[in-house]
TrEMBL record:
<dbReference type="InterPro" id="IPR011759">
    <property type="entry name" value="Cyt_c_oxidase_su2_TM_dom"/>
</dbReference>
<dbReference type="GO" id="GO:0005507">
    <property type="term" value="F:copper ion binding"/>
</dbReference>
<dbReference type="InterPro" id="IPR045187">
    <property type="entry name" value="CcO_II"/>
</dbReference>
<keyword id="KW-0460">Magnesium</keyword>
<dbReference type="GO" id="GO:0005743">
    <property type="term" value="C:mitochondrial inner membrane"/>
</dbReference>
<keyword id="KW-0249">Electron transport</keyword>
<comment type="function">
    <text>Component of the cytochrome c oxidase, the last enzyme in the mitochondrial electron transport chain which drives oxidative phosphorylation. The respiratory chain contains 3 multisubunit complexes succinate dehydrogenase (complex II, CII), ubiquinol-cytochrome c oxidoreductase (cytochrome b-c1 complex, complex III, CIII) and cytochrome c oxidase (complex IV, CIV), that cooperate to transfer electrons derived from NADH and succinate to molecular oxygen, creating an electrochemical gradient over the inner membrane that drives transmembrane transport and the ATP synthase.</text>
</comment>
<comment type="similarity">
    <text>Belongs to the cytochrome c oxidase subunit 2 family.</text>
</comment>
<comment type="subunit">
    <text>Component of the cytochrome c oxidase (complex IV, CIV), a multisubunit enzyme composed of a catalytic core of 3 subunits and several supernumerary subunits. The complex exists as a monomer or a dimer and forms supercomplexes (SCs) in the inner mitochondrial membrane with ubiquinol-cytochrome c oxidoreductase (cytochrome b-c1 complex, complex III, CIII).</text>
</comment>
<keyword id="KW-0496">Mitochondrion</keyword>
<feature type="domain" description="Cytochrome oxidase subunit II copper A binding">
    <location>
        <begin position="92"/>
        <end position="226"/>
    </location>
</feature>
<keyword id="KW-1278">Translocase</keyword>
<keyword id="KW-0813">Transport</keyword>
<dbReference type="Pfam" id="PF00116">
    <property type="entry name" value="COX2"/>
</dbReference>
<feature type="transmembrane region" description="Helical">
    <location>
        <begin position="63"/>
        <end position="87"/>
    </location>
</feature>
<keyword id="KW-0679">Respiratory chain</keyword>
<keyword id="KW-1133">Transmembrane helix</keyword>
Amino acid sequence: MVSWGQLGFQDAGSYFMEEFIYFHDFTMMIILGVLSYVVVFLILGLTSGWVNSGFVEGQLIEFLWTIFPALILVQIAFPSLLLLYLIEDFSKSFLVCKVIGHQWFWTYEISTESSDLLLTLDCYMLPREGAFGMRLLMTDEYILIPVNVPVRILVTSDDVIHSWTIPSLGIKADAVPGRLNQLNLTLSRKGMYYGQCSEICGANHSFMPIMLLGAASPWFFAWLDRL
């Protein structure tokens, strides 16, 4: 989860978020390289007094400053398109978690891919006295997702538009009444992940936290038995 004074991304908890961070770092390196190149030539042009009034055309340099930006854009486009494809790949999933937004709590319905309903769970925010210092983030119940198991997330709403968001997992989907939005999630490590509603949905919009626990598969079945 995020800490005070943190400027970068939260630690990745899913394979998709890891790829997002790698892509961000790769793109930032390209941007910094281009920016440094432009700044150096601006300084040289302003301080060295290079002036060529007879310079009319230069086909080689025009070719180079056209082809190099094109190659840079291609380098950015390929990993970006690959990530977009992987996000929309729903070919393999062993569990289905349906998320239903209400004013102002979340309902979860966990089932198998063959539509066998395993449980239904309502999650309300804990008051400050029972949140153990995690103000506006803890709920009375949580959902448990097994690690390294592909899960299909279906997001919808029962009243107004909400948004189910967990930053450290790199997932965000609008919950729209009468419509299902779909996410693909595979946790890469164990831990508790926190999120909040990211769409203004009324007076208590700030009081719709999300708690998701990533654990091993035996813990998942024990959690189902407990509920």
